[in-house]
Amino acid sequence: MRIYNTATRQVEEFATYVPGLARGYVCGITPYDHMHVGHGRVYALFDMFRRYLESRGYEVRLAINFTDVDDKIINRAREEFGSEAYRRWRDVAERYIAEFFELAGRLFIKPAHAYPRVTENIEDMVSWIARLVERGHAYVAPDGSVYFEVSKVPGYGSLSGQKIEELVAGARVEPEPGKRNPLDFALWKSWSPGEPWWPSPWCPGRPGWHLECVVMSAKYLGVPFDFHGGGADLVFPHHENEIAIARAYFGVESLARYWIHVGYVTVRGEKMSKSFGNVVPLRDVLARHSGEALRLAYAMSHYRKPMEFSFELLERAEDIVRTLYAAYDELSQALADAGDADREALEYEKYVEGFRAALEDDFSTPEAAQHLYGLARYIISTVLHRVDRISRETAMSILSKYVEMADVLGVLERRRVPRELDDAIKAAVEVRARLRQERHYPLADYIRQRLASIGVELHDFGPRTYYTYRRRPPAS
User: Fold this and answer.
1) Is there a contact between 408 and 359 (Cβ–Cβ < 8 Å)?
2) Structure confidence by residue, pLDDT tens digits, 449-472
3) In the beta sheet, which residues pair with residue 259?
4) Using CA atoms, how far apart are residues 295 and 30, in angstroms rounded to an integer?
5) Which residues contact 70 (CB under 8 A, 6 or more apart)?
6) Residue 346: closest CA among 292, 389, 282, 316
7) What end-to-end distance do the CA atoms of the chain give, in Å?
8) Angle made by CA atoms 261, 267, 268, in degrees to the nearest 5
9) pLDDT tens digit string along 20-42?
10) What is residue 89's DSSP assignment?
């Protein structure tokens, strides 16, 4: 597999430090406002990346953080709660973190290995800052704030491809008392009245933004880990500053081996932004369209390129999703019509091979989606008309590979057995297998019939039994 690495500006072979284990960190939300379509694109695409790695046999250990204390959260609390903001700022963060999990579920994003929060790791951050000050990579300002000294770290600007001299000359930042260089950034921010604070050796305050991700990724993944991701807007200064801190603290060249960034979402050619007034809330989109259609719309643009959002795009994606389900449902039902032997060869493997090749080549989801859709149309136009000329095992193989492809992109998710039924069905299948071994066929057939009554179809191939689930809730 080859993937574009922002740090080297090249497409490189993907290899992990520990064979079979892929450790990744994706920058999470600052929970002060509703998620928008751009947020959804980042997390859906990294979910597809994670699913593909898992399909290739990797164990994926993925961490996504929450910046649950920040100026934006505090300001939103002041707008909502006035003088009570000091006590109720956490209410803001908790509300939008809850929304994150709700919408991630509706987008069929698999749970991460860890969701670290800033407020749960402040003691670790204070220890990191103390060590950076001790080593001369950070300094204490007169008000007790602590700044990271960018000039002390070689190679600053390498991720974004910028020279430190040019950055200093073009810097446009608000003056901060005690800051030696306009590019230096806060590791610890001194307390101001009406703000939350934590104790430190320097002053009451709270950690700076760039430090938090380094501390939490190192804690949950170790350093260096395999891939670090986020939106393209995080390349500079956030990810650049993360690398600088890691170089100073660990002496490593980079925090992660691969830096993977997702392109902007645009509306009528302009980047989605509050300043342009063109932000599309994710909740509003999912109220009108299925999570699978939105995932497919995301997949139809290459992850590194801008994605032009429109509801017309989602309508087209919904049509494709309906085709995907039609192929799945009809082939599932037609399995009973398959024979005992193959009397005709079907050319379905080209779609499977094309799908894999596309994802191996810099994770080209647009081509992968085309191959998935192509296989769905092939199932409908060809396989279903010739199912009596192939064995049930071949028909099940086509269905299984089709489902494996769909699973990587996170579509056909509503075909799954509801979680509350999954364990019960597996237990029933195991009991039925034992009954068949002991030749209690009437009881085994009774279990098959009862499972069929709730939409679970069993398919026996020698000692192994597959099942498909055909009853699913509506998209909304």
Assistant:
1) yes
2) 988 887 777 877 666 676 666 555
3) 228
4) 22
5) 30, 32, 209
6) 389
7) 35
8) 130
9) 999 999 999 999 999 999 999 99
10) H
d(CA 196, CA 88): 10
Q: Do residues 228 and 25 make contact, with C-beta atoms less than 8 angstroms apart?
A: yes
Domain ranges of the chain: 2-288, 289-414, 416-476
Checking if the pLDDT of 244 tops 80, the result is yes
Size of the chain in residues? 476
One-letter amino acid of 126: V
Q: Within 10 Å of residue 445's Cβ, how many Cβ atoms?
A: 13
Does residue 453 come out as left (phi exceeding 0), alpha (psi in the -120 to 50 range) or beta?
Answer: alpha
User: 132: pLDDT confidence band, cut at 50, 70 and 90?
Assistant: very high
Nearest to 282 by CA among 321, 306, 314, 260: 314
Residue 129 token pair = 């800052």
Q: What is the C-alpha to C-alpha distance for residues 346 and 274, in angstroms, rounded to an integer?
A: 51
Give yes or no for residue 261 having a pLDDT over 70: yes
In 3D space, the residue among 208, 241, 218, 222 whose CA is nearest the CA of residue 118 turns out to be 208
Question: If you classify domain 2-288 with CATH, what class do you get?
Answer: alpha beta
What is the bridge-based pairing of β-strands 265-267 and 256-262? unpaired
User: Distance between CA 345 and CA 390 in Å, rounded?
Assistant: 8
Is the distance from CB of 290 to CB of 262 less than 8 angstroms?
A: no
Q: Could you tell me the pLDDT band of residue 426, with boundaries at 50, 70 and 90?
A: confident
Least Cα distance to 1 among 458, 469, 408, 417 occurs for 408
Nearest 10 degrees: CA dihedral of 15, 17, 21, 23?
-100
Cα–Cα dist 348/364, whole Å: 20
Helices of type H across 335-384? 349-360, 365-378
pLDDT tens-digit readout, 271-315: 888 777 889 999 999 999 999 999 999 999 999 999 999 999 999
The pLDDT value recorded for residue 35 is 97
pLDDT bin (cut points 50, 70, 90) of residue 474 is: very low
Cis bond upstream, residue 418 (ω within 30): no
**pLDDT of residue 169 exceeding 70:** no
- Whether 326 and 384 have beta carbons less than 8 Å apart is answered as no
Contact between 225 and 255 (Cβ < 8 Å): yes
Residue reference for tokens 């994706």: 26
Report the alpha-carbon distance of residue 287 to residue 95 in Å, rounded. Answer: 19
Q: Which CATH number fits domain 289-414: 3.30.360.10, 3.40.950.10, 1.10.510.10, 1.10.730.10?
A: 1.10.730.10
Write out pLDDT tens, residues 387-416.
999 998 999 899 999 999 999 999 998 876
Say if CB 113 and CB 301 are below 8 A apart. Answer: no
